[in-house]
Amino acid sequence: MFRNPDHRLLLVSVAASQVGLQIAYFSVSIIAVVVLDLGEAEIGVLNAMDQIALVLFGLLVGAWVDRMRRKPIIVVSEVLRAAVMLTVPLAWVLDALAMWQLYAVMFGLGLVSVFFDVAQGSYVPMLIDNDRLAGANSRIQGLRSASDTGGPLLAGPLVTLLTAPVAVAVAVAGFAVSAFSVWRIRFQEPDPVRRGKPHLRAEIAEGIRFLLKDPIVRTVAFSSAWCNLSVGAFQAMLVVFLIRDAGQPSAIVGVILAGSGAGGVLGAMLVGKASARFGMGRTALVALALSGPGMAVVAFSGPGWGAVVAFLGQALFVGAIVVFNVNVVSYRQAVTPDSIQGRVNATQRVVTWGTMALGSIAGGFVGQAIGAQSVLLIAAAMLFAGCLVLLKTPIRTLKELPEEGTGLVEVR
């Protein structure tokens, strides 16, 4: 990927966008917990707002993306994400920063991100051939994870020095660099095939049928929905637990969250060799089994040097999830025709991210009733249970990606 100019620009875009997104999310979380002092239930709803946008509009966006070229959608989406985040420091300057404004920002960010994520997920398999797709996805995921480290590490000091509302403005630079990098890609994307008068309902149904037809894609979609229910609850209460229960300052919370990136980089480095030796499916299942215990380690961390324990638990949790995701996403992209990539990606996201929104809301209300730490432990148990369900499914037999146009293969 590093020898191809277009692939390099794609990697720059991934890194810049992810750093911007991490700074934005971290800063909004600190504003909610420290500046506005929101309750656990309110924070749970806040964390769900961007996922709610995906649930409401994801299927429609998938159909729209398949009618248009993906590159312009990616560029415009990054510009709009920058504009949405600029409203936070503006509201702070005008002394209008409030809970409802943060809800609107998160919903707007989520809505634009639906277009960005679906378009990017459909653009990558057009830009990169199947025989290099898994390797490319592992590098992209590794770069995202490295950015997940750099984002919180940069955000912590920025929030401390500049205050959280001003730190949000720094995220805008990341979105701008990402937009410029994708705009410079020279690959000539073919115009989508237009089949007469558009029928949104029929086009959406085509994406749903494809997802339900393939046994591995279908299995992963529904098991991921269960797992994301726990991930949503965990992420909603993580910053609350670290600041209010474990007593960690904002800068140290940024370091702990950087464990996500460290684990993700390690997972991206290991996934290729592990999958080649043990098979893509088995590697994915073992990785998913380790993610729940990683959550539990975070939940048992405390103040002071407990930050080290939390960092290691976060690294294990996210690193394992990265290994799982690289394999299952690569398989889905490889077997899905280019003409319906957008709709299949969108359908997958609606199914899995919809439950994440429910998990965030439920985690907030449960956290308000029994505490953030209890939510983290429940989430860890649920995530581990999700792995057990997959043991008797077709994914365990997946060994490698199919060749282009050959359809299913045995086992990832």
TrEMBL record:
<feature type="transmembrane region" description="Helical">
    <location>
        <begin position="283"/>
        <end position="302"/>
    </location>
</feature>
<keyword id="KW-0813">Transport</keyword>
<feature type="transmembrane region" description="Helical">
    <location>
        <begin position="350"/>
        <end position="366"/>
    </location>
</feature>
<dbReference type="Pfam" id="PF05977">
    <property type="entry name" value="MFS_3"/>
</dbReference>
<dbReference type="GO" id="GO:0005886">
    <property type="term" value="C:plasma membrane"/>
</dbReference>
<dbReference type="GO" id="GO:0022857">
    <property type="term" value="F:transmembrane transporter activity"/>
</dbReference>
<keyword id="KW-0812">Transmembrane</keyword>
<feature type="transmembrane region" description="Helical">
    <location>
        <begin position="249"/>
        <end position="271"/>
    </location>
</feature>
<feature type="transmembrane region" description="Helical">
    <location>
        <begin position="9"/>
        <end position="36"/>
    </location>
</feature>
<feature type="transmembrane region" description="Helical">
    <location>
        <begin position="372"/>
        <end position="391"/>
    </location>
</feature>
<feature type="transmembrane region" description="Helical">
    <location>
        <begin position="48"/>
        <end position="65"/>
    </location>
</feature>
<feature type="transmembrane region" description="Helical">
    <location>
        <begin position="86"/>
        <end position="116"/>
    </location>
</feature>
<feature type="transmembrane region" description="Helical">
    <location>
        <begin position="162"/>
        <end position="185"/>
    </location>
</feature>
<dbReference type="InterPro" id="IPR010290">
    <property type="entry name" value="TM_effector"/>
</dbReference>
<dbReference type="InterPro" id="IPR036259">
    <property type="entry name" value="MFS_trans_sf"/>
</dbReference>
<dbReference type="InterPro" id="IPR020846">
    <property type="entry name" value="MFS_dom"/>
</dbReference>
<protein>
    <submittedName>
        <fullName>MFS transporter</fullName>
    </submittedName>
</protein>
<feature type="transmembrane region" description="Helical">
    <location>
        <begin position="308"/>
        <end position="329"/>
    </location>
</feature>
<keyword id="KW-1003">Cell membrane</keyword>
<feature type="transmembrane region" description="Helical">
    <location>
        <begin position="219"/>
        <end position="243"/>
    </location>
</feature>
<keyword id="KW-0472">Membrane</keyword>
<feature type="domain" description="Major facilitator superfamily (MFS) profile">
    <location>
        <begin position="216"/>
        <end position="412"/>
    </location>
</feature>
<keyword id="KW-1133">Transmembrane helix</keyword>
